[in-house]
């Protein structure tokens, strides 16, 4: 645990060399980086952490600026410059950090990323709402979302399963298409996430006043964008926006892969990251 930015964050650190910091998805915690953290700590000073309100990190009530927490963590660990690797909304947060303090970001690796300032299409919003209400009735869901609740374990399990199928697997896929250990870890992280979120003080993300969606042309760090070709099309479109909007961004597509490549195809993602890191210019 480390104190930074008015909170306590739980993290792991291993290895020596150039720093690389992993920021997890909103449907996971730092365990999603098990393979990448272990492998890349052989050549880098690797850091992964649980975002505020996740995993072993502290709770918070109100708005949370996750990219400021990331930069605060780097301050607390005396990391002046790092490669930032972010997945899903973790990808949005590392981009916001790069836009806030570009001199501290050596490179960006965005895995099935979100984006601050992005407006989700109505079709995605509608399908997401349908998924939520298929798992937990509206009245109980509203109570849980208000925070400080005592969630029914059956509701926690149902929501974890629904989110895993909708978000992590992607349309038309079944759990049998994912390695068993990957599916088990996905469900475990999601069950712990919803049990924690519904019983904790209510909070939400506080996004930058100038969101990344309007500023992609300002990103100068070498950027890798990874997307899973089996995940929700509207999320794939966000990866395409980065690939098109960030100068010289490198896009890599992973076939038969959903929203968490680091869990579903860990070796393949680590290989992509290793090749990207190898090609980076030496840090000044």
Structure description:
The strands form 3 sheets. A 7-stranded mixed β-sheet has the order 3-5-4-7-8-10-11, with helices on both faces. A two-stranded antiparallel sheet has the order 1-2. A two-stranded parallel sheet has the order 6-9. The chain is 42% helix and 18% strand. It is of the alpha/beta class and 284 residues long. Strand 4 (19-23), helix 1 and strand 5 form a beta-alpha-beta unit. It has 2 domains: 2-119 and 205-279, Alpha/Beta hydrolase fold, catalytic domain (Rossmann fold), CATH 3.40.50; 122-202, no CATH class. Helix 4 packs antiparallel against helix 6.
Major sheet description:
7 strands, mixed
Order of helices and strands: EEEEHEEHEHEHHHHEEHEHH
What is the CATH superfamily label of the largest domain? Alpha/Beta hydrolase fold, catalytic domain
Shape: globular
Radius of gyration: 18 Å
- Rounded mean pLDDT is 96
Distance between the termini: 30 Å
- Count of domain modules: 2
Percentage beta strand: 15-25%
How does the helix and strand content classify structurally?
A: alpha/beta
Instruction: Please list the strands of the largest sheet in the order they lie side by side.
Output: 3-5-4-7-8-10-11
């Amino acid at each position: 645990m480390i104190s930074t930015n008015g909170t306590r964050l739980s993290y792991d650190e291993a290895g020596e060399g150039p720093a690389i910091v992993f920021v997890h998805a909103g449907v996971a915690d730092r365990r999603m980086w098990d393979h990448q953290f272990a492998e890349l700590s052989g050549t880098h000073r690797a850091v992964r952490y649980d975002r505020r309100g996740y995993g072993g990190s502290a709770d918070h009530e109100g708005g949370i600026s996750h990219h400021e927490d990331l930069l605060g963590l780097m301050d607390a660990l005396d990391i002046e410059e790092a490669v930032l690797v972010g997945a899903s909304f973790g990808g949005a947060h590392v981009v916001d950090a790069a836009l806030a303090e570009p001199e501290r970001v050596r490179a960006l690796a965005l895995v099935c990323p979100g984006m601050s300032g992005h407006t989700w299409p109505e079709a995605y919003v509608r399908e997401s709402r349908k998924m939520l209400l298929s798992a937990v009735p509206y009245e109980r869901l509203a109570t849980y979302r208000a925070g400080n609740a005592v969630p029914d374990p059956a509701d926690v399990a149902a929501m974890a399963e629904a989110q895993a199928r909708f978000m992590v697997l992607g349309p038309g896929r079944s759990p049998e298409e994912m390695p068993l250990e990957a599916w088990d870890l996905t469900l475990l992280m999601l069950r712990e996430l919803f049990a924690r979120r519904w019983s904790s003080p209510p909070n939400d993300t506080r996004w930058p006043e100038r969101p990344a969606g309007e500023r992609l042309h300002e990103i100068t760090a070498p950027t890798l964008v990874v997307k899973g070709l089996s995940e929700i099309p509207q999320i794939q479109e966000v990866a395409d926006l980065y690939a098109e909007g960030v100068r010289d961004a490198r896009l890599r597509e992973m076939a038969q892969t959903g929203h968490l490549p680091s869990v579903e195809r860990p070796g393949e993602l680590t290989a992509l990251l290793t090749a990207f890191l190898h090609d980076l210019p030496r840090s000044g």
